[in-house]
Structure formats: C-alpha cells, structure tokens
C-alpha cells in the first residue's frame, strides 16, 4: 500500500532529539513553570472554553479517511481501516497549545468537532440542508461555503458504506420505518436506530499494558500470531486481515508521537523563555520514547496513556470508554521519579490539570435526535481512584489519588468524571479531601462500594484479583480493564410501556396499535390482572429490541469495527478477533438494558393497586384513562388525590417493595434474553439523560404526573419533589432495593451548600456514605451541591452562569449545555440538609 509518512523529516531531527535526550537524562529535576494567581490548567481552560461556542467544524479526519479508503478499494475492511487510521495519525494537523505539557489532540482545531462519516454519514447532509453554513444556533458552524460542501461530499461518499447507512440497508425500508416509529424521533419506547449514531465503548481498555509494554511489545504480539496463523477457514482469513490492519494502526501511533517529537523540538529551538524551552524539550524527549517503548517516568506514563486514548478515538471515537484506575496505572513511575528527585507533587498536579483540559478538547457532535437525551457534550469517560490492591485487598489510596482530585479542584471542567472506590479501610484523609471537592459543586467524585461491586463481578466468573481491579465504563458500569467487550446498550422507557399497557397496546403518538392487546384496562378487576398485562408488554418490547440490538451489533462489525480497542483487550490478538465480535475474554455485560422511569412506575402501580383496584377506589379505570387523556384538565380534584398518595423515597415499605417488584420483573425477563457471543443481557438503570427525553414523549400517568414531565433519574433516586421525609428516609428507601444483581446502579442526592458546610458537614456526608454502603449494601451514590435559587437564576440569565456545573445522572455538565427539560428536572429535585 502507498502510505504518506515523514521518514526523511524524522531522520533530520533524530540528531537533535538524541542531544535532547542526553541533556534531559543528565539533568536531575524536571524544570517547569510555577503559577501563582491562576493554575496552569485554569490559564489554559480560560483560553479553550470560549472556543466551545465559536469554533468551526473540522473535516480533517473525515477527508483523510476518504483519501485512505480510496487508496485501498478492494481490500478487506479490516486492512482498509488499518491503512486509513494510520494515514490519519500521520497526516492530521497537529499543534502544541500554550502552557500544555501533554501532546496529542482530538481535533485539528482547538475545541473543534471531527466528523466520523464511517459511523453515520448522511445525517451530515441533512444537517447542511437544514442549517446551512451557520450551523445549529451558531454551534458547530462551517468556516466557509467550500468547507460545508466538502462535508456534503464526504457524507455522499459514505452513502453506501457508512455504519448507520449499512444498517438501514440491512433492515430494509419497512423494518427501518418501524424502528424509526418506536424510537426517539417517534413514540420513544426503545432507542434502536439512534444507537447507530453513538459508537460503542462503555468498557475499559487495559491502557496499563501500553504503559508497560509499549507499542513495540504489542506489535510483537501481533507478529507472533501472524506467524502462527494457518489459514484453513474464513475465520482464519478474517483473523489475518484483522491482525494486519491492527498492526498498521499500532505503527500509526508511533508515527503520531514522532510527529509531536519533531514539533516540540522545533518549538523549543524558537522558544525564548528558558523554562518553557525546557518543558518543550522534555516533551520532545518523551514523544521520542512513548508510546513506542515502555514508560519509565511519570510524565512518560501519562503521555503514553493520552496517546493510547487518542489512537482509539481516531479509530472509533469511543463513547463512554473508561480510562481505568488512574492512580494505579502510573504509580510505579511516580514512585521512581519521586525517589530520584526528578519531579515533585506540584508538577504531578499540573500534569493532571493538563490531562483534564486535554480531555475537554473532545467534542460531541450529534444530529438533533440525539441532543435531548445525551446533554450534547457528555462523554462519559470515567477515571477511577481509590479502591483496594488486587493482590492484598488492602487500601490502594496513594499520592496520585490526592493529586487527581486536587487537579480537578483547580480546573472546573466537566470531564473526565471521577469515581472513588469506597471500602471500610479507605484512607480517611483522602475521603475528607474527596468530599471537599464534592462540596465545590462540580458533581464529582461519585462514590462506589467495593464490597457489592466486587461481589457482583465474582458472581460473573472473574477471579478475586480481577474483581478487585475493577473500573468503570461510562457512568457506572462495572468492568475489569482489558477483559470485556465493548458494550451495546438499549434504552427502554418503562413509563411509555406502562402507558401503552393501560391503553391496551394503542399508542397515541403514532395513533396506531403499536403494542399487543394485553387487556382492556377499563374491564380489569384486579391489580394482579394489570400486572400480568404489564409484564406481557415488557416481554413484547424486550423481544423486539433485543433482536434488533443483536443484529445491529453484529452488522456494525462490517462497517465500524473497534479494532484499536482490541489491542488493549484480552484475548483479541490471540484469537484474531475484534473485541466486540468475540475477541474479548468475557462476554458478560456485552449488551445491557437501560430501564428508564422504573421509580415512576412504582408510584403509578401504588395508585392503581389502591386507588383503582383497592377496597376504597378513588375513581374507575375509565375515569383514570379520561383524566390521563385530558392531561388532568377538568380532573384537578382527582389529580390532587393521586398526588397525595404515598410515593417511593419516603421509607414507606409497601411503595419501596413495588420498586423492587418492577426490577425483579425486568431482570426476570431481560436476563433470559441472549446477547452476542454467549452472553446475556444485563440490567443497568442509570438513565443518563434519557429520563428527560423519554418523559417529554410520555403522556399523563396515574400518580398525577403531567404529560411531558421528566421521569426520575438513575436507579433509586426518587421522582422529583416526591421525597418529603428527608435524606434518611430516601437512604432507607434506596437501601431497601436489592442491588446485587443490577449492573450500573445510580443514586443521586442534592444538598444545599449551607446544609453541609464546614468540617461537620463533611463528616456528615462521610457518615451518610458509610451507612448506605455498609448497612444497606448500596452500590453507588453521588451528590449535587447547589441550591435551587442559583439554578433558577441560571435558567433566567444563562449568560451569567456559563461556568455553573451540575450532576445530571452519572456525569457532570455545564448548565448552559443542558436542554430545558433537564434543567427543569434538576430544579425540581428535592434539596436536603444534614
């Protein structure tokens, strides 16, 4: 294959680099700038943040991809992608931002979005036709008419080979129309077609192996398998093509780093400031070594991690990819550097600040159908700190645990999110520091219970060492780095399913008989009869959506295979298979369901059980349906009675049991649904932002809820404003739900800043977490710390609150990035004091 590279340029600079390397090896301590009034990260973010609203599109990746595909027409897809991704890494425009200590970027432009037409192409043509050169409300506009037409041409090139486009061809027009009808743009029962807009990760690659082995070590693994391979089947042929394509991508990572080596060398030669010159020289030295070879210093390890993240990004963008145990991966190099006096704690914090700003450079550019559910700029990249040592089970908190939260405190960025693994022996000083950061109002760190999380993984066949080493994909998904497939979710609205059950399968959005006729609600005579109908409707939509989900995932392998992710996942190289197509060592959790509105359903069931089918009904079934269709207009007295009935989140055992019942029904049905590669569907109620989007498409419901209102967030968070008995009651209700077999549980609480101020407030939060995890065996808890008045002011005058951060579900977001329905939902959440 013809490949564009810069070998001659590299040779010219090797002498300079070798001299730099020798100079740096002879110096004892890394030189770096000190910052007084503002931290390094804050200085950078104040420059980068405004570009989020003004930066134009970049077509760099997309155009290079097209060029690469054209050069390899006729080759197998795996080899074509290997060549194209290496070409991207060789030719993407690169830069080093002022003050930055880490190399590599997510776009050719600072804070610019890159187009991935290989994932989904023709929506870009629709975007151009709808919004023109100015883009959506000035957000992601085009730099010129010429660039806009370039985007159109790229979309058209992928008309027949883009991932989403191939999926729609596979479905055929009739089936595709049905899936559109039941998805976000239609009746919003289950998101099927839109899953093709969001590339899949939701797992955690083992980037530690890149730090330890380097690219050369991984290439050696590939070469060993190629040498062993004897082609006797079609699967052998696919393995051969996959390994050749993966090798190209890996070598492209070295090319990419060496380009930054050359750029840093050139910049250092021109730099007048001696300290910045030294920083650039150190960056050049590091990029000459990593990720090609194993990292020896802390900065090399962090830089290698960044290059690993970026190489996976340029392949498949990696929505929801976990970054692993960030305080463990680089700790050996940190200890070595500290012992040698090469670095100090302040330098480590500054590097982590640079890392946070670097990750914020990744933009999410979606079609309109996606933004109401995913809060536009959410990435769901999770960095885990704390926890236990995999071998000994002892507390693994270390200096990097502190440094990572200190960096987050200095730079108020929403990404990456931070999760603390809590256990009974966790360092109390670290917990105190983590909670101080929580009280700053950024929505993180979140806290996870090691005991229940490890038990969950042991039950799925992991060894004790593997389970103790768990991290997270996305917001809350337990995963062992490098052991699991990239993961495919399906989101289902149980509020919509309950609504359609009450209308005997009739859907008022599509004005059609969308579901099966499970029984005329007006003729039902018992609560048990309705529950049987509801469970039948759950089963119906589970069958439909899983059939689509499995086919979608498998077909995706022929258009957008996650090859680079496979380099960091066992046993993809050994098996010669892509991580999502049977390459991963573990198939558990490779597909899962996100059930939305389950807490709301529990409240609806209580009204039906006692207000309709109880001994003293408040109305007839027909009157309830009439009130719902009227959105309670003319039925205000009936609505008041429904609202006054007990709700989940108030430590009322019967209502709490109803929520447990619904989760049991969902698990009973979904755990029987086969996933790909011998796995089964898991149940993960973490909502993301879908509680807003699904609520907007749902009519009035029996508990008094009005049409279009957001549902409850997460898994065990009460519906907004319905928890009236204080935080202890909420904790008891959440703790009453058996969470052992739930994958990715999410629990949100909101406190007023005044209610948890000072050391006493910090101690009270720590005690609350301990009670929930130790006594109730909860899996996850996180906190919003801001008051209602501030959010209401931000909604009224958003231009004054561009830095306001809130916790939505398992992620934080800037207030001004959120759709109005999610803002209203956050305002409506109960506010506690301790």
Structure description:
- By secondary structure, this protein is an alpha/beta fold.
- Helix content is 50%, strand content 7%.
- It has 33 helices and 15 strands.
- The strands form five sheets. Strands 1-2-3-4-13-12 form a six-stranded mixed sheet.
- The radius of gyration is 27 Å and the shape is globular.
- It starts with 6 loop residues before the first helix and ends in a 6-residue tail after the last helix.
Please tag this protein with its features.
834 residues; alpha/beta; 6-stranded mixed β-sheet; 3-stranded parallel β-sheet
Shape: globular
Q: Got a strand count?
A: 15
Low-confidence stretches: 1-26
Structural class category: alpha/beta
Distance between the termini: 66 Å
Number of distinct helices: 33
Report on the biggest sheet: 6 strands, mixed
List the helices and strands and how they pair.
Blueprint: H1 7-26, H2 40-48, H3 60-71, H4 77-91, H5 122-131, H6 145-157, H7 163-171, H8 173-182, H9 208-228, H10 234-270, H11 274-289, H12 298-316, E1 324-325, H13 326-329, H14 331-340, H15 345-360, H16 371-374, E2 382-386, H17 399-410, E3 417-422, H18 428-442, E4 446-449, H19 450-458, H20 464-468, E5 471-473, E6 477-479, E7 488-493, H21 494-502, E8 506-507, E9 512-513, H22 527-556, H23 563-566, H24 572-575, E10 591-596, H25 598-612, H26 621-629, H27 636-644, H28 653-670, E11 682-683, H29 690-696, H30 727-735, E12 748-751, H31 758-775, E13 780-785, H32 788-796, E14 805-807, E15 812-814, H33 820-828
Parallel strand pairs: 1-2, 2-3, 3-4, 7-10, 10-11, 12-13
Antiparallel strand pairs: 4-13, 5-6, 8-9, 14-15
Helix pairs in contact: 1-10, 1-11, 2-15, 3-4, 4-10, 5-6, 9-10, 9-12, 10-11, 10-12, 15-17, 17-18, 18-31, 21-22, 22-28, 25-28, 32-33
